């Protein structure tokens, strides 16, 4: 019997695009839901770009302890930029389709940014561990080189 069902099941599945629904049952409120998303996105971009600007301009901030902060700012910009614009397209313009390639690209950037974020946090933890455990050797162990 199962073999017979397998013969008649000739359904072709074409996964050339995915359709994103946004928030189900709240389609009428998508305009209002997009307001906090966009405000927090632009505030995050403004804060991270401001941090990068001041670390880049001020020579006294070109030290080892500010390098991970600038790298964290870059990964935060990358993570939010790989997610929020697509969500805004769903909320504002009702563009719910995404190709398989677009989905894979978005997943790639999200995962790379997450791994980079974790690596930077691990590096910061190592930096603090050296500063606490070997405070007299910190300047020789942790250098820009």
UniProtKB/TrEMBL annotation:
BP terms from Gene Ontology: G protein-coupled receptor signaling pathway
Membrane topology: Multi-pass membrane protein
TM ranges: 32-55, 67-95, 107-126
SUPFAM superfamilies named in the record: Family A G protein-coupled receptor-like
Cellular compartments annotated: Membrane
Coiled-coil boundaries: none
Any one GO molecular-function label of the UniProt entry: olfactory receptor activity
DNA damage as UniProt keyword: no
G-protein coupled receptors family 1 profile domain residues: 47-145
Alphabetical keyword list: Membrane, Olfaction, Receptor, Sensory transduction, Transducer, Transmembrane, Transmembrane helix
One Gene Ontology term, aspect cellular component: plasma membrane
InterPro entries noted in UniProt: GPCR_Rhodpsn_7TM, Olfact_rcpt, OR51/52/56-like
Protein name: Olfactory receptor 52H1
């Amino acid at each position: 019997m199962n073999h017979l069902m397998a013969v008649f099941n000739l359904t072709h599945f074409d996964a050339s695009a995915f359709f994103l629904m946004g928030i189900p049952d709240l389609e009428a409120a998508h305009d209002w839901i997009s307001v906090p998303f966009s405000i927090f996105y632009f505030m995050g971009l403004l804060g991270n770009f401001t941090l990068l600007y001041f670390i880049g301009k001020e020579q006294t901030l070109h030290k080892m302890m500010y390098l991970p902060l600038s790298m964290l700012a870059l990964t935060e910009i990358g993570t939010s930029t790989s997610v929020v614009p697509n969500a805004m397209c769903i909320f504002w313009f009702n563009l719910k389709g995404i190709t398989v390639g677009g989905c894979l690209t978005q997943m790639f950037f999200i995962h790379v940014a997450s791994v980079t974020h974790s690596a930077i946090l691990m590096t910061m933890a190592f930096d603090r561990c050296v500063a606490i455990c070997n405070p007299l050797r910190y300047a020789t162990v942790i250098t820009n080189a």
